[in-house]
Amino acid sequence: MNGQTLELPHRGITVIVGPNNSGKSRFLRELHEAAKDGMSGDRAIVADVEMHKKGTEEDVVAWLDSRRLRLRDNDGGIFVTDSVHEMEGSVSVGSFRYWEQQPVLGATLPFFASFHGTSERLHLPLSAQKPSLMRGTPRGTLQKMVQDLELEARISQLAEKAFGFPICINRHEQQLDLLTGKPTIEDSGYPVSEELLIEFRSFEPVSDQGDGVRAFMGLLINAITPAGTMIFIDEPEAFLHPPQARLLGRYLVEHSPDDAQIVIATHSIDVLMGILENRDTPVKIVRISRNGRGNKFQEINPDEVRGVWADPFLRYSEILSGLFHEGIVVCEGDSDCTYYQAYVDRHLRDNSRQDLLFMHVNGKARMGRALKEARRFGVPSAAIVDIDFLDDTRLVRECIPSNDHPPFDIEKELRTLQSAITQLRKPPVMRDLRDAVSSISHLGEKDALTDEARRIVAQSIKHVSGWEQIKTGGIAAVPQGEPSASMQRVLSFLSECGIFVVPVGVLERWHPEIGNKRTWVPEVLGRRLHEVKNLHLDEFLGSVQRHLSSST
C-alpha cells in the first residue's frame, strides 16, 4: 500500500471511499486475495496482510461444528459451504493443522470470507434446493429460513420497509424460491392444505422483479447470515436508487452477524450515511486516492462526517460528495458553480482530467467551514471568491489552512488594501441624476414610475463605495503604488492556500454585456457565451486546476 499500513477493526465495518478509478474495487479484491495467499509482488495496492488468529486446530473445528459447516464423512473431509455461489467442496482436516501458526487462510478461505462483486450482483441466488434432512446442513440464508421462522420474519420485515411488500419461502417445495408475498393461511405443517399451496403459487418470485429489488435482496440475504466472519462487498449501491442504497447501508450494519468483519468499497454517499446512522457498531472510513503511480490512504473520523451531515447548510452543499471526487471547488453561490463548471467542461477538460466537484455554501459565511472539512477529509480543495471577499479579514483568516506557510502578515496587507479601496468612495453627482432622468424621459408626466425607473433614479443618487468600484473594475481598479503591490502579494499568498480571487471582480464581469444579475447565468448559457474562449478565464481556472493537481 505504497508503504502505508492500514489496520481494520476486527469487529465492525470498514468503508473504502474515493474518486472514480482510485483503486477502491481493486483494493477490495486484492485484500480478499491476500487473505488467502499472503504476500505477492503481482498486486498493485495490497502487498501483504497480517491476520490475527486465536485458538487451536481443535477450537477451529469446534467453531465449524457450532455453525454446522463440518460434514463428518468417512475420509475425515470437511464440507465447505459458499453461500454466495452455492458451491460445494471438500477441505481436509489437515488444512487446519497448526492453525495458529498459519499466516494466512489458504484453502480454508471459504470458511471465513465471502466476496460480493458487482459483476455477480444480479445473479446472487434467490432460490435454492431444500436442504437434505439426512445431512442436516443448511447452505445459505434460504435453506436456513426453512428451519428458522424468526429469520424469515426478520428478512420479510426488511424487504417490506425497503420495497413495500413482504417476502416468504414455500418450505413445502423442493425448490426454495424467495417469493413476494406473505400467506394469509396459517402454515400448520403436514399435510399441507391445497389453499395454502395455491396462495404460495400466486406469489411472484423475487428473481422476476426489477434489477434494484434483485440486487438489494440478493446482497442482503447473502450478507445477513454469511458462512464466514469476513464479508467483502464492492459497490453495494449498484442498481439501487438512493433511498434503497441508504437503507441497505443501514441494514448491513444492523443485521450482519455481531462478530463479522465487513469491508465495503463504495462510491455512494447514501450507503455511507446509512452505515453511519448506527453508532453502536465500530466504523472506520478510509479514503483512497491516486498518488502518482501509487495509492494514498487517509483515515477519516466517522464522527466528523456525522457532524457535517448534522449541519443543514453543509449537508445540502454536497461537501460529503467530495469524498468521491478528486477535488472540490467551493464557490459562493449556485450561479458560480454552474458557470465555472460549464466553462471547464467546454475548454479545460482535456488539460486536467481531474474529477472535480463544484459546490457552493450559499454565500461567503460558511466557506471557511467547508474548506476546513474538505481538508480534514483529505480531499484536495480550492475556493473561488469574488473580490469583496478581501474586505472581511476574519473570513479570510477562516479560509486559510492551518498548516505551515511561509511567514506572511496577511492582516497588515489587507489593512493597506482595505484602507486604499475605502477611500475610493464616490459621492453622487448631478450629472448621474440628470442622465438617469433622461433615460426614463419616455414616461409621460402622469405615468406611474415603474420599478425599473425607480431603481435607475435611486442608483443615480447612491454613494458608490470603493468596493463597488472594485467589484466592477476588478484588480485593475485597485489604486497604483503600494495598494496594488499589496493586492499582488495577497493574491499570491491566497493562491498558495487554494483561495482564488476573481480577477475581474465578480462572476458577472466575465460577461458584462449581460446586465441583469438575476438572469445572468441563464442568459450566458442560453446564448452559449461560455463556449467563447477567454484566455484570461483560461488562466484563472487553470491555476485552480493546477493547485488541486499539486495537492493530490
Number of strands: 16
Low-confidence stretches: 81-88
What is the correct CATH architecture of the largest domain? 3-Layer(aba) Sandwich
How many helices? The count is 21
Distance between the termini: 16 Å
Please estimate the helix content. Answer: 25-40%
Structural class, by secondary structure, is: alpha/beta
Give your account of this protein's structure.
With 552 residues, the protein is an alpha/beta fold. The chain has three domains: 12-138 and 212-299, Rossmann fold (3-Layer(aba) Sandwich), CATH 3.40.50; 302-405 and 483-551, no CATH class; 430-460. The protein contains 21 helices and 16 strands. It has helices at 24-37, 57-66, 109-112, 140-147, 149-163, 194-202, 211-224, 242-254, 269-276, 302-310, 312-315, 334-348, 367-376, 393-399, 410-422, 430-439, 451-460, 466-473, 482-496, 520-526, 535-551; strands spanning 12-17, 77-82, 87-92, 113-116, 127-129, 167-169, 175-180, 204-205, 230-234, 261-265, 283-291, 294-300, 327-331, 356-360, 381-385, 499-501. Strands 4-9-10-1-11-12 form a six-stranded mixed sheet, with helices on both faces. Helix 8 (242-254) packs parallel to helix 9, helix 12 (334-348) runs parallel beside helix 20 (520-526) and helix 13 (367-376) packs parallel to helix 14 (393-399). It starts with 11 loop residues before the first strand and ends with a helix. Mean pLDDT is 87; it is low at 81-88.
